[in-house]
Amino acid sequence: MKSFNDLKFELHPVTKKGIRSTIELKPNVFISVVAGEGFYSTSKKGVRAECLKVEDASTFEVGIIDENLPKDEQEWDVIGWQTRDDINKLMIDNS
Questions:
Q1: In terms of residue numbers, what domain contains 63?
Q2: Residue 82 has what pLDDT?
Q3: What is the pLDDT of residues 24-67, one digit of tens each?
Q4: Calculated CA dihedral for residues 45, 48, 52, 57, nearest 10 degrees
Q5: Cα angle vertex 30, ends 68, 22, to 5°?
Q6: Residue 81 · residue 57 · CB < 8 Å
Q7: Is 93 exposed, middle or buried (0-12, 13-18, 19+ CB in 10 A)?
Q8: Rounded to whole angstroms, how far apart are CA atoms 7 and 30?
Q9: Is 48:39 a contact under the CB 8 Å cutoff?
Q10: Which residues is 57 bridged to in the sheet?
Q11: Sign of the CA dihedral 7, 78, 29, 14?
Q12: CB–CB of 61/68 below 8 Å?
């Protein structure tokens, strides 16, 4: 079973003021976890503020998509301010 610890974060390629990680939970079901400026997250610098290291984030914005659904039903389900424990639960629930 995958958990938050399996996520590998990198600098967000668009904002450059945040981090992101995406992992496949099961075939064609993906979770995206981001934190940083403009995202529904909290870092040491504040709410929706720059975050360049995962250690500096206390909450994250999370999106989940199930690409097994018909194309017209595929949509990122996004939720903000998720803790590491919340993300572990989401990963279990969607695996």
A1: 4-93
A2: 98
A3: 999 999 999 999 999 999 999 999 999 999 999 999 999 999 99
A4: 70
A5: 155
A6: no
A7: exposed
A8: 12
A9: yes
A10: 43
A11: negative
A12: no
Q: Which two tokens stand for residue 6?
A: 């399996």
Which residues have CB under 8 Å from 47's CB, separation 6+? 41
The token pair that represents 89 in the structure block: 């639960």
Measured in residues, the chain has a length of 95
Reported in sequence order, the residue ranges of the chain that DSSP labels E, i.e. its strands, are 10-11, 18-26, 29-36, 42-43, 46-47, 57-66, 77-82
The domain tally of the chain equals 1
Average pLDDT, the chain: 97
**In the block, residue with structure tokens 């939720």:** 79
